[in-house]
Design a protein that fits this description.
With 122 residues, the protein is of the alpha+beta class. The protein has one domain. It has four helices and seven strands; from the N terminus they run H-E-E-H-H-H-E-E-E-E-E. A seven-stranded mixed β-sheet has the order 1-2-7-6-3-4-5. A hairpin with a 3-residue loop joins strand 3 (71-75) and strand 4.
Amino acid sequence: MLQVKHAGQMVFKEEMENIGSTGALFHDPGSGFYYTDGIYRSLVRLLGKPELIAHIIRIVSGMPGREREFMRVKLRRDHILFCNREEHVLLREEVPDTIPLPEEISLCIYCIGRTLLLPVEY
């Protein structure tokens, strides 16, 4: 559960809660990965960062297959964490262009096999 400390966090939390699962999948033909409508709506519509989808796919596709079975990708304002099932950090990547997230909030994405989805879509 998100803890809200500021008005910006409250707005973001409400917007994220309105993103549900439609069941739609998008295919990235270059990588063979899929991503859900929830991923599209959160990264493209809400954050205005469509390039993050391709970036996450590029990083995850370079991970060993066993690690891709279930991975958590955590987006923060200034970095992205790629963690395995046990929450061990596999990679911390600094981002040159700030992700427009409220200060104390991270956005979690699951990668299961070759599909990116939000936790609410799991």
